[in-house]
Design goal:
The complex is a heterotrimer of chains A (101), B (893) and C (127). Chain A is an all-alpha fold and 101 residues long. Chain A has a domain at 24-90. Chain A contains three helices and no strands. The longest helix of chain A has 26 residues, at 65-90. The radius of gyration of chain A is 23 Å and the shape is elongated. In chain B, a hairpin with a 7-residue loop joins strand 6 (868-871) and strand 7. Residues 150-157, 368-374, 536-547, 616-620 and 889-893 of chain B have low confidence and may be disordered. Classes of the chains: A mainly alpha (101), B mainly alpha (893), C alpha/beta (127).
């Protein structure tokens, strides 16, 4: 009696044409979250690169160029690295239907 | 010392190398060995045409002049690439499934394939790109001069134009050869892409080589370089916040909208997967491209004599240090930047110009008779080639006329703002289904006009706009001053133009979109674009663009219904003489089908659907099915709505009628009660009055007493009869009466009735025909008799002739037995005939003792017996006709 | 000279009853039973008081009353109205039309007599 009728459960779900199931397998769930990360990354970049807007433009107390360059290029490198890592995960399968914008 | 000749030789060798690369790539592609051509890295490197000579030379110049602003030009595109999941992925998917050939095509296709819109975008692109091409020519020319006459920065004009002309000619040739070799449906140019990928490597290598030389060769390492930077005049962060943010966003917008970027990003894209690689590799590329800009600028400012053009530090610093090889590499880097930009821009622009301007005009002039044939291919190629030549020539002319112009970076930014005007229509088009053609057109034209007026024309120089207009506004209208619109002064001119053009562009775009209504094709395309990921799993190709009858059949079934569609196809197949049930998709059949479909979904949609299946582009079958299903559902839904609304109005009518009936009934009831009250009170009044007289009046004579007592008696009987009649009528009306069916002769019934009605009086003479009355009846004889009594009594009461006479005529035919009662009086007036059968209807002004219920009761009885009683017009006296069905006379009830 | 009463009524038994009662009280009783000619009869007979039925053949008692009230010679004429329709709205209608007194059938003879006497004192200062 361990054989739970698989077909029975399918028949129960059949009337509703479920496009995006409510609960995903662990893999699919992970993929969704990586997509979320991919969407979040440019927002993060924009925020980090907006930080220079806060820097004082006055001659005294101004941020030195070397520091500014280091910061901006540092963010750049981190973004590229993060995008690289995400691209590895996003490449593992075709994207699911309905997952787009 | 490198001579100009050596440089030219190097240059030509390099160009020959590029030709070879492009050629080999094309050959490989033709042989189907495209795997290495389709490598993600090639795609990423091809994106580097974003970095033009403006970047290669101009970034250092910009850094030397205004510090870190140059970075914004790279930050924007980096963000767009890192955020590829948002916009680029969608654009690439749309571009592939809709076979988009250019940015103008994208916009036009999204907004209902509007060619007018395409022309607008094309004009905008040409106007925006031409100065940019001129800029590339200028940079190549300047770099030549560096080698020709080191240290001398302003040679004669003639030599400059000469160099630029040759460069332009060479570029046009290369582009024509590799840009129009084939006329692929997907507009991909493997040779060109490969060549620019190589150039991308060259320019990165060149810039990094110079950078490394400057940092480790001249400054003694990274730490020292940073210290040197801090010590220089660029030592502190001095950046206007508005420009920092504004330029970052502007460059991001331009990255998506520039025709050449669109070409490599979307049109040349083979595989969405490439975007994944580019998402990290391209930001990395941009980072490396900009990494050494500040060091080079700082060292350049240190080393070079004041007044040197900082735009050329990349060349002049190695030269000044005696590193001629490095200088040549650097020159090739700049050369690569310039040429790759011009080549791709020319291809992109020529595609637009040819597809949206030249070809429509050509088709118009040739009468539009060109269907798909070899001729058109030839014409298209020719048109492309001429367009390429035209675009490059335009750039050259602009260069010659402007004579060099201002600093390189400025022209680039002006161009950016112009092309960014496409952005609202583009993003709105792919994310918002409500965006319409009118909105896109309005926004585009608004933004374009403001850009022209506030930025482009002022940037050309004093010639374009008169000084008076610049300082006081046109016609002295201060608020229309080109660089201070609406009286807002003090803004940086570039930010001013960007702000106003984009703000008004977006406002007009959204406003007109909200208020206008899209065409069916536009809505179809809108749904396709916005829901691209739901509709298509990827691009589908149609075998050679041949219409597939099965697909047409499936689509037609969805729209027309299975039986109708099959019947239509079979009919057409028979007409064509085809053996099967499917006809060939010849023009005649398609036209018929389209007409049939347009009956269901409207002409425009039908045309689009058939056209797209037959044309084999843009829309997949699944998409059409989705639309067909949608429209079927819509029709079903609207039919249901209609039915519901019908039902609703029917119900409302019924309710109204019922209400009316109730009102009528209520009025009738009131009238009936009033009548009853009157009819009852009248005899009671007499009874009471005379009984009081009898009681209270002493000295009444015996005759008086007797008379008054008999009045009381009569009125009491009248009252009783009235109540009997009322009860009788009530029973009859409620259908509670039990008919007592018996058999009898009509004559006998009439005899009884005459006797009963005429009791005691001989005043009425009755004429009858006994022989006609020998008819056997099966009915309720007592009830029938009651009707006859009533009619005879009425004649007796109301007939006003001097010698009253009633004639009873009996006739019968197969179905009916007719008995007429006609007297010789004056009859019933026409106006009263309608109401004599109503309760309490009394026509005569003379009190006749009845309550006016007789005829009402008679009518009820006749209805019960299955016959009827009616007033018979056309006689002098009163005439009533009683009709009985011949076969038993009984109603179903 | 006895006062004159005009009874406008179509029911013969009621006419007879009212005539009997009023005659015995010393009134001169005239009768009329047609609605259409009622107004002319009133003008011609010049009665001291009118007893008017509502449901008359040809013309309703209300209409007759309104016509009489519009004419100067009868605008103040005492009119007693009798009706077999005993609803409140009938009384309202009559009062709006300017009735002097309103009674519902069946009535008691004494009531009628009292009402007529109240409207026209039998031997008053008029004579």
């Amino acid at each position: 009696m361990t054989d739970r009728g698989e077909s029975g459960r399918d028949a129960g779900a059949a009337p509703e044409r479920i496009k995006s199931p409510l609960f995903l397998h662990r893999d699919s769930y992970r993929r969704r979250r990586i997509m979320d990360a991919a969407r979040f990354l440019p927002v993060l970049g924009l925020l980090l690169w907006s930080v220079p807007l806060l820097w004082s433009a006055a001659p005294e107390g101004a941020v030195s160029s070397s520091a500014a360059l280091t910061y901006i290029f540092g963010v750049w490198a981190i973004l590229a690295l993060a995008a690289f890592v995400l691209s590895l995960y996003l490449g593992r399968g075709e994207d699911e239907p309905g997952s787009g914008g | 010392m490198i001579t100009l000749n050596v440089l030219i030789a190097v240059c030509l060798t390099y160009v020959a190398f590029l030709f070879a690369v492009a050629f080999v790539a094309e050959r490989s592609a033709l042989r189907g060995r495209v795997r290495w051509l389709k490598a993600p890295m090639v795609y990423t490197l091809s994106l580097s045409i974003y970095c033009t000579a403006w970047t290669f030379y101009g970034a250092v110049g910009s850094a030397a002049r205004s510090g870190f602003e140059y970075l914004t030009i790279y930050l924007g595109p980096s963000l767009v690439m890192v955020g590829w999941w948002w916009v680029l992925r969608k654009l690439v998917r749309i571009g592939r499934s809709q076979r988009i050939t250019s940015v103008a095509d994208l916009i036009s296709s999204r907004y209902g394939k509007s060619n007018l819109l395409a022309i607008c975008v094309t004009v905008l692109a040409v106007v925006g790109t031409t100065p940019y091409i001129a800029l590339q020519l200028q940079s190549v020319t300047l770099s030549f001069e560096v080698f020709a006459q080191p240290g001398v920065l302003s040679p004669e004009e003639g030599a400059r134009s000469y160099t630029a002309l040759w460069v332009a000619f060479g570029l046009a040739t290369f582009t024509v050869i590799f840009g129009t070799r084939n006329l692929d449906a997907n507009e991909r140019h493997h040779g060109v892409v490969m060549a620019i990928a190589v150039e991308a490597v060259v320019k990165l290598a060149a810039l990094m080589a110079v950078g490394i030389f400057v940092v480790w060769g001249l400054s003694g390492g990274a730490a020292q370089t940073l210290a040197r930077i801090d010590a220089s005049e660029l030592g502190q962060w001095r950046m206007d916040g508005g420009r920092w943010a504004g330029l970052t966003l502007l460059s991001a917008a331009a990255f998506l909208c520039l025709p050449r970027m669109f070409q490599v990003l979307i049109v040349e894209s083979d595989d969405e997967g490439h975007l994944r690689t580019a998402s990290w590799a391209f930001p990395l590329y941009l980072m490396l491209m900009s990494l050494f800009v500040v060091p080079i600028a700082v060292v350049g400012l240190d080393l070079m004599p004041s007044g040197s053009n900082p735009d050329l530090f990349v060349l002049t610093v190695p030269l000044a240090m005696g590193q001629e090889g490095l200088a040549v590499l650097s020159f090739l880097g700049g050369f690569s930047s310039a040429t790759s930009m011009v080549i791709v821009a020319a291809i992109a622009l020529s595609t637009m110009v040819s597809n949206h301007i030249v070809m429509p005009i050509w088709l118009r002039f040739t009468g539009g008779g060109a269907s798909v044939s070899g001729d058109v291919r030839h014409v298209v190629l020719l048109s492309r080639r001429l367009s390429i030549a035209g675009v490059v020539a335009l750039g050259y002319v602009y260069y010659s006329l402007s004579g060099g112009g201002t600093a390189l970076a400025t022209i680039g930014l002006v161009s950016f703002v112009g092309l960014a005007q496409v952005l609202p229509a583009m993003l709105g088009g792919i994310f918002w289904r409500g965006a319409t053609r009118t909105g896109a057109m309005g926004g585009l034209i608004t933004g374009f006009a403001i850009w022209l007026y506030t930025l482009f024309l002022p940037s050309i120089g004093t010639g374009a706009l008169p000084e008076a207009v610049m300082s006081q506004g046109p016609f002295g209208l201060g608020w229309l001053q080109p660089q201070a619109l609406f009286g807002i002064t003090g803004l940086d001119p570039l930010m001013h133009a960007l702000l106003w053009s984009m703000a008004l562009n977006v406002t007009v775009f959204v406003g007109l979109s909200l208020t206008s209504f899209p065409s069916p094709l536009e809505r179809l395309q809108g749904a396709q674009f916005v829901n691209i990921f739901d509709h298509s799993g990827g691009p589908r190709s149609w075998a050679g663009g041949v219409a597939q009858t099965e697909d047409l059949m499936i689509m037609a079934q969805r729209i027309l219904g299975a039986r109708e569609a099959q019947a239509l196809f079979e009919r057409e197949a028979r007409r064509q003489g085809a053996r099967g049930t499917l006809p060939d998709p010849n023009p005649g059949f398609l036209e018929t089908l389209e007409k049939e479909l347009s009956g269901s979904v409207g002409a425009a949609t039908a045309h689009a659907m058939v056209g797209q299946i037959v044309g084999g582009t843009s829309v997949s079958v699944e998409d059409l099915m989705a639309v067909a299903d949608e429209s079927a559902q819509l029709m079903e839904y609207s039919a249901r709505l209609e039915a519901q609304s019908d039902e609703l109005s029917r119900t409302a009518r019924q309710v109204r009628e019922a209400n009316l009936k109730l009102t009528r009934l209520s009025v009738q009831k009131d009238a009936f009660l009033t009548q009853i009250s009157h009819e009852l009170r009248t005899p009671m009044t007499s009874i009471r009055a005379f009984s009081e007289i009898l009681r209270d009046s002493p000295g009444l004579t015996a005759a008086e007493q007797s008379r008054y007592a008999s009045i009381i008696h009569d009125e009491a009987i009248r009252l009783t009869r009235l109540l009997d009649d009322l009860l009788d009528l009530s029973v009859l009306e409620n259908g509670q009466v039990n008919l007592n069916l018996r058999q009898g002769l009509l004559g006998q019934v009439l005899d009884r009735a005459a006797a009963a009605a005429n009791d005691g009086g001989l005043t009425l003479r009755i004429r009858r025909d006994p022989r006609a009355e020998e008819i056997m009846l099966i009915t309720d004889l007592d009830r029938l008799s009651q009707v006859f009594i009533n009619l005879i009594a009425n004649a007796r009461k109301y007939c006003d002739a001097t010698s009253p006479e009633l004639t009873i005529e009996v006739r019968e035919d197969a179905e009916l037995l007719v008995i007429d009662f006609i007297d010789n009086g004056t009859g019933v007036g026409i106006e009263a005939r309608d109401m004599i059968f109503e309760k309490f209807a009394r026509v005569s002004d003379r009190q006749a003792g009845g309550a006016g219920l007789g005829l009402a009761i008679s009518r009820q009885i006749m209805t019960r017996l299955g016959g009827e009683i009616a007033y018979l017009p056309g006689h002098a006296g009163a005439a009533f006709r009683v009709t009985l069905p011949r076969k038993l006379a009984m109603a179903a009830q | 000279m006895p006062k004159q009463v005009l009874v406008i009524e179509d029911e013969p038994n009621i006419i007879e009853a009212i005539s009997f009662i009023l005659s015995r009280d010393g009134w001169t009783v005239r009768t009329h039973s047609n609605g259409v000619t009622a107004v002319d009869t009133v003008l011609m007979r010049k009665p001291d008081v009118v007893i008017l039925d509502v449901m008359l053949p040809g013309k309703s008692g209300y209409d007759i009353l309104r016509e009489l009230r519009e004419m100067p010679e009868t605008s103040a004429l005492p009119i007693l109205m009798l009706t077999a329709r005993g609803q409140a709205k009938d009384r309202e209608l009559a009062e709006r039309a300017g009735v002097s007194h309103f009674m519902t059938k069946p009535f008691s003879n004494a009531e009628v007599l009292d009402a007529v006497r109240a409207l026209v004192p039998p031997v008053g200062g008029a004579t």
